[in-house]
Amino acid sequence: MYKYYLFDLDGTISQSEPGILNCIRYALDAAGLPEPSEKVLKTFIGPSLYDSFTSKCHVDHDQALWLVAKYRERYNVTGLYETSIYDGIPQTLKDLKEKGAKIGVATSKPTEPTKKILAKFDLAQYFDVVVGSNPDGTGSDKQVLIAECLKRLKEADAEGTDMPQADWEEAVMMDDSKPEVKTQIHEKDAVMIGDRMFDIDGGHACGIDTVGVLYGYGNREEFEKAGAEYIISSPEELLTL
Q1: What is the pLDDT of residues 143-176, one digit of tens each?
Q2: What is the pLDDT of residues 57-96, one digit of tens each?
Q3: Is 62 labeled as catalytic in the residue annotation?
Q4: GO MF terms on file (predicted)?
Q5: DSSP-assigned states of every residue in the chain
C-alpha cells in the first residue's frame, strides 16, 4: 500500500462530461465559432481548457482566454453541478483513509469549483490537500500540480494538519513555471491516479508511480503507451495495489 494517493478529478472521481461539454458549447456559441464533433469535444476533458481551445478550435491567445472566461461564466454557476461521482469512489476513499493514507487532489480544474464538487458529494472529508489551477485556467500543467500536491501532502503529514489552500493559489499566480524535479529519484510511497495520459506523464515527471483508470475518459492503449504502472477498471482495485 502507498502512503500518498494523488487523484485527478474529472474522469477519475467525478463523471463530469455533461457539465463540461455544455459549457464548451456555451462558450463557442457566444463566440460564434463552429462546434466540433462530439468525439473532439470529449478530448477537452482532461487537458487545460486553454490548450484545448487553442489546439482544437485554432484560436489565438486572447481568444482562448476569452473562451475560458466564457466557459467559467456558466460552469461556476451551473456546469460544475452537472456531474456525478463514479460508483465505488466514496467507499474507496473511506477505506484508504482508514488505512492511514494521505489523499490529495491534483486537477487542472480551478481550485474553488473542485472544492465545491467535493463538498456537494460529501467527499471533502477524505482529502488532506486540494491543488487546482488558477481561476483563469493558468497554472494547469499537470507536472506542476502533482509536484505541489505531493509536497503539500508531505508537509501536512509531517505537521499533522492540512495546509491552507490560499498559499498554493497565490504561489501559482505568481509563478507558473515548472518546478525542478529530480525524476531519477523514485518516490516509492506515492502514486498518481488519473484517466488521461497527462496524469501518467505528470506523475512520471515527478518520479512517482501511476494508475490509469479505465472507467474514465482514457483507454488502455493510451495508458500502456504512457507507461502506467497499473491499469484498473474500478476504484476498489486501488485497495489491492
Answers
A1: 999 999 999 999 988 876 544 443 434 334 334 4
A2: 999 999 999 999 999 999 989 998 999 999 999 999 999 9
A3: no
A4: hydrolase activity; protein tyrosine kinase activity
A5: --SEEEE-SBTTTEE-HHHHHHHHHHHHHHHTPPPPPHHHHHTTSSS-HHHHHHHHS---HHHHHHHHHHHHHHHTTTGGGS-EEPTTHHHHHHHHHHTT-EEEEEEEEEHHHHHHHHHHTT-GGG-SEEEEE-TTS-S--HHHHHHHHHHHHHHHHHHTSPPPHHHHHHHHHH--SPP---TTS-EEEEEEEESSHHHHHHHHHTTEEEEEETTTT--HHHHHHHT-SEEESSGGGGGG-
Nine-digit cell at 191?
502514486
pTM for this model (two decimals): 0.82
Helices 142-159 and 197-205: angle between axes, nearest 10 degrees: 60
83's grid cell: 456531474
What size, in residues, is the chain? 241
Q: Which of 8, 10, 195, 209 is catalytic?
A: 8
Please report where in the chains the cell 487523484 appears, as a residue.
Answer: 7
Q: For residue 194, which of 34, 49, 10 has the smallest C-alpha distance?
A: 10
Q: Amino acid identity of 61?
A: H
